[in-house]
Amino acid sequence: MNILYISDMTFDPWVKPLHRYCPDADLFVWGKDEIDAADVDYVLVWKPPAGVLQNFPNAKAIFNLGAGVDALLHDPDLPKDIPIVRLVDPRLSSSMAEFIVYWVLHFHRGMHTYAQQQRAGEWTPHGQGHTEKRRVGILGLGELGQDAAHALLMLGFENIAGWSRSRKELPGIESFAGPAELDDFLARTEILVCLLPGTKETNGLLNAKTLAKLPKGAFVINSGRGSLIVEDDLIEALNTGQIAAAALDVFQTEPLPDDHAFWSMDNVFVTPHIASLTDSESATQIIAEGIEAIEDGDLPENVVDLKKGY
Ligand code: GLV
What separation in Å is there between the alpha carbon of 66 and the centre of ligand 1? Predict the structure, then answer.
C-alpha cells in the first residue's frame, strides 16, 4: 500500500507513527519522492496546492490532517468520487477546549482590563462576575464546540448556549438553531466563541449587523476560521466598545499581514493559528483505523459532506 504525504509542513513527525500504525505501507512525500500517480492508494494532506488532488486516479481516500477542510474544498478540481476524511481527534478537541477555557476565563476575570491597567501603572480592583451567571455562547456545536462546552460546564459555567445548523440535544447547553435563531443567540451572549467551519454559509457571518446584536461590551474568541468575521467590521466594533476585546487565532489572511490593525490594538490578542495543533501520533492512529475500514470494504468515519462543506 502506498501513502503519499502532501503538505508544506515537514513530514518528520509522521514517519514514526506511520511506520507504527501502518506497518505495511510505503511512504512518499509529494515533490520529493518518485511515485507513479496511479500507484497512490491514500493521500494525507494539509493545505495542498489547488489542482494536485485530481491526479491520483486510484486513490481510495484523502485524509485531511486537520479539522477544517475549507482549504481542500476551495479547489475546483477536487475529485468528487474519492472520500475525503476530516480529522476528528480527541486530542484536537481537548487542546481546542484548553484554548477556549483559557480565553473565556481571561475575559471573565477581566484580565484584558488588568493588562491595560498594568501598562498605565493603575491599581484599580474591579468586581468579579460569577461563572454560573456568565453567558457564554458557542457558534458551532460540532465535536470541538461540544468539548469546549463540557470543559466550561465542569468549571461551573452554567449559562452556556450553542448555535448550529440543526438543533442539538445536549444536557446543560441551550441550543439555538438556524438563521432564524441567530439574533436571539447573539443577544444573550456575553462571551462569544467562534468554532464554525469555513463554508459558503458561514463566510462573513459576524459582520457589523450581527456584532451589533451582541450586548455592548461583549467578547469575541475566534479559533474557527478567519472567514467567519468581516475584520473591518470587528475593528470598528472594537473601537466603539461594542466589542470590549477579542482573542483571535485565525484570520482572513494568514500569516496576519505586518500592517494589519489587529497587531497593535490594545483590546485584541493575536495568536498565530495555534489554538489546536494536530498531534501526529494520535492522528495517525485514527487515520490507520480509517484505512483499515476502507480495506475491509467499509466507509471510514467523518467523511466530508461536500454539499455542507465540512
Ligand atoms: C486547523 O485549523 C484545523 O483545521 O485543524
Answer: 4
Q: Give all strands (DSSP E) within the chain, no chain letters.
A: 2-6, 26-29, 42-45, 61-64, 84-85, 135-139, 159-164, 173-177, 191-194, 218-222, 243-248, 268-270
- pLDDT category of residue 31 using cuts at 50, 70 and 90: very high
CA of 158 to the centre of ligand 1 (A): 28
* Residue 300 beta carbon below 6 angstroms from any ligand 1 atom: no
Q: The domain 90-270 is classified under which CATH number: 3.40.50.720, 1.10.287.3510, 3.40.47.40, 3.40.1000.10? A: 3.40.50.720
What confidence score (pLDDT) does residue 243 get?
Answer: 98
- Please give the DSSP secondary-structure letter assigned to residue 65: S
Ligand 1 pocket check for 196: Cβ under 6 Å: no
The preferred substitution site among 276, 277, 286, 302 for testing ligand 1, maximizing ligand atoms within 8 Å of CB, is 276
pLDDT of residue 40: 98
- Does the C-beta of 67 come closer than 6 Å to ligand 1? yes
The yes-or-no answer on residue 225 being catalytic is: yes
Ligand 1 contact, 137 CB (< 6 A): no
Active site (annotated) includes residue 130: no
Give the DSSP per-residue string, 232-275. HHHHHHHHHTSEEEEEES--SSSSPPTT-GGGG-TTEEE--S-S
Cβ neighbours for 244, distance < 8 A, ≥ 6 positions apart: 107, 112, 217, 218, 219, 267
The predicted pLDDT at position 126 comes to 97
Query: What is the Cα–Cα distance from 254 to 257, expressed in whole angstroms?
Result: 7
CATH code for the structural domain at 2-89+278-295: 3.40.50.720
221: exposed, middle or buried (Cβ count in 10 Å: 0-12, 13-18, 19+): buried
Instruction: Tell me, using a 6 A CB cutoff, whether residue 66 lines ligand 1.
Output: yes
Mean pLDDT to the nearest integer, 93-105: 98
